[in-house]
Amino acid sequence: MAPSRHLGVKMEAPVKDRFRLIYLKSADTEKSTLKEPVQSRDSQEFEGGNLSAYHEISESLSYQTRLQQAKSDLHHPDPKPRTMAIRFFEALDSPLGASLVQEALSDRDPDVRAQAILTLTKMKNADIGLSLKKYLKDNSPKVKMAALRGVFYLGEKVDLNILLQLLSDESPWVRRKMATLLGWSQTEGALPILVELSRDADAKVRKAALSSLVTLYPEESENRLLKAMTDTDPDLRKWAKRVLEKMVQTPMIQRRDLRSE
User: Fold this and answer.
1) Separation of alpha carbons 157 and 187, rounded Å
2) Lowest mean pLDDT among 18-27, 160-169, 193-202, 240-249
3) How far apart are CA 1 and CA 18, in angstroms?
4) Which pLDDT tens digit goes with each residue over 136-158?
């Protein structure tokens, strides 16, 4: 079926899916300096068919048309179009877009809430910093991790007291993300938190914490690495052994790169 020449005509569902992909890509073109790609694995699902039949739609899209479609998709019953619409507004990086994305912070789907947090953080929205503490207590690990990224990404001094509540978080992914971000951001005063995380029940959390300890506190990390050589997890034991061997052979100034070994 050929696409309608009049965008006001109601489009069938498959056509509207292609249309969403087109307006999403057009937003990426308008803001080519965006550090992360706008298109996600979810949006790639719309690429299975041949888009040549939709070139006429693509060429005739106006900014207002794309904007209206994105605004409509923010209320779509499927969370994937809602997430795509948020990415569209992220690419445009406008005050109007930020205002619309803020409404998605209360979305019922955790993926949508997480994307809204990440988008508003990248846009450096003035209000998102005040909301991050709230979303660190969300019932979804994805939302908590997005909020954690926001806390560190905004570049403000991290309140370590806020992070203490996550030491006992039920999700190992959240604890691991916190350990990694503490090392990445080189946060001062993180030693007690990282030491506690290095004793975590999850081996991947322990490794992430030890990696950050090597980055931030190379001298203090040696004893922790020695203990890790008798860890119950064989992969962690091997990793700790390799890092210790490198530390013996490497000047102190270069030790911060050992975490990738």
Assistant:
1) 8
2) 18-27
3) 13
4) 999 999 999 999 999 988 876 77
The per-residue b/e assignment along 121-156, b for 16 or more CB within 10 angstroms, e otherwise, is bbbebeebeebbeebbebebbbbbbbbbbbbbeeee
135, two tokens: 């979303």
Alpha helices (runs of H) in 104-202, residue ranges in sequence order: 110-122, 128-135, 141-153, 160-164, 172-185, 191-197
Determine the residue type at 21. Answer: L
Residue 224 contacts residue 210 (beta carbons within 8 Å): yes
pTM, 2 dp: 0.71
Tokens of 18: 């292609």
Which domains are delineated in the chain? 159-261 (1.25.10.10)
